[in-house]
Amino acid sequence: MLYSLARPLLFSLDPETAHEVTLRLAGAASFFSGPAPRAPVRVMGLDFPNPVGLAAGLDKHAEHVDALAGFGFGFVELGGVTPRPQPGNPRPRLFRLPQASAIINRYGLNSIGVEAFTENLKRARAKAVIGANIGKNKDTPNERAAEDYTRCMEVLYPHVHYLALNVSSPNTKGLRDLQSKEYLSALFASLKRGREALRERYARDVKLVLKVSPDLDDAAIGDIAEVALRERADGLIATNTTVSHAGVGHLPHGTEEGGVSGGPLMSPSTRVLRAFASQLKGEVPLIGVGGIMSGADARVKFDAGAALVQLYSGLVYRGPRLVAECVHAYEARKSGAH
Question: Which of 152, 271, 278, 320 is the most buried if burial means most Cβ atoms within 10 Å?
Fold first, then answer.
């Protein structure tokens, strides 16, 4: 497999540089590519060629849509993107922890801004199911956050199938406060009002999906589930990265500030996924993400209530073959195989 040969070279580079090199290499059709597994599924009123997607964060600026779609994903989530450009946090801000198959990032929602992001997206030729992860600018107070999310929705609406409302990144101060019942209710109410006019204008229905933290307690999960049901959210992504460094603090870079993804995220993210499945009872579709490093991990997410799953850190450690492996795990589960 080409990725297994390339990985040692990529891992010898600074993680953010390796990230950028990998995306550039992915543009070559012969690099990493494999057949796109077929396992059609309909979720949120959308038809996915398979239930395994790319999580937000890999292609932050919508610059590599065609190459990434060629990996066999059933859908691709791009971003996060903010209304205005912002640089994010200073480098270094991305750290590999290979002993734990983990990554710590503190990007801080670095973004080229929604207009430039959309221009990149418009150049993509892939006929993929596309989601965009949207957030607020760092200097926008939470009281005006709905304006930022609405602006992103207005610009992106003709070009995407769903919008993931990022209220759970740990790297923007105060962003997770938007998960409170008060802020979340106001955010949904504002976006739904704006979406009605956009539906009429573009004659298409873009879904609104909420992306939540893995660090929620039971009371917060109950509150968010209540809002998601009342506001009829189209979907819920469980989860973003965790602020807990349990199990990695003793490793090189293990105490770096930022969100932890990869292997250590599997357990906490699945706990939150399972809790939302219990609360939502199938009325709001769930997307499971966090710690999927194998087909067996994907099956755990499906068993916990996920209708779809997403990958990110697993791709760094396993390469694109992980996509097909997870699709096969879904098919085996569907057929009742063990």
Answer: 152
